[in-house]
User: What shape does this take?
Amino acid sequence: MLLSALLGTLGSVSLMAQSTNVYSLNAVGYINVTLSAGYNLITCPLITSPDNTVGTLFNNSNHVWNGSSVDFFSPTTGYAGNTDSASARATNANGWANGGTNVAAPGVGFWFVSPVATNVTFVGTVPQGSITNTLVTGYNLVASAVPTSGDLCTNSITKLTNYNVGDSVDVYIPGTGYAGTVYQSSKRGTTGYNGNWGATGDPTTPNVYQAFFYVNSGPTVNWVENFSVNQ
Assistant: This one.
């Protein structure tokens, strides 16, 4: 499910450089993200302005995010050096203790820990073209690089069809945890992932902003997504 149902569309913006008569069509929209009190595993599948840093997505100059924290995961270093917190005592202009410089680019997942249930709206451009998310051996905290949800295997955009037998997709649901949302590939087939998972079925995500852990049990997997506004 993409854009028309779950992404609030601000419009398709046609830009013309008058001197060269070059046209560019961009899908611009917004995503309303529901944050539960406690842990939320999310992503920002839009290209935001001026950047996709935490300080831009969750600007705390007015202290609205006090008590919140973000945690990014690196396959090589874990969470070490990849966390930040919002506080009235933060000396940075955007209100984050470590500057809010971690980048939540499309396809990158992160934990957002909120002291209360709240909402945030991401506004930006939908990524287009061929986008590759490299999934190394072990744990990868990732998401779809475009705003889509549902079955990640049968979706014509996400096409999560490369895999190693024994790989898993672990989706975290606030208030529930991982219960019932861990999907593990059980066999290799000519149709890729589709139908090759256990009793839980193909990996699915409930929201366009849902991130998850991809646990790779073998060699590097290249997850390639393709989206165009002409689709």
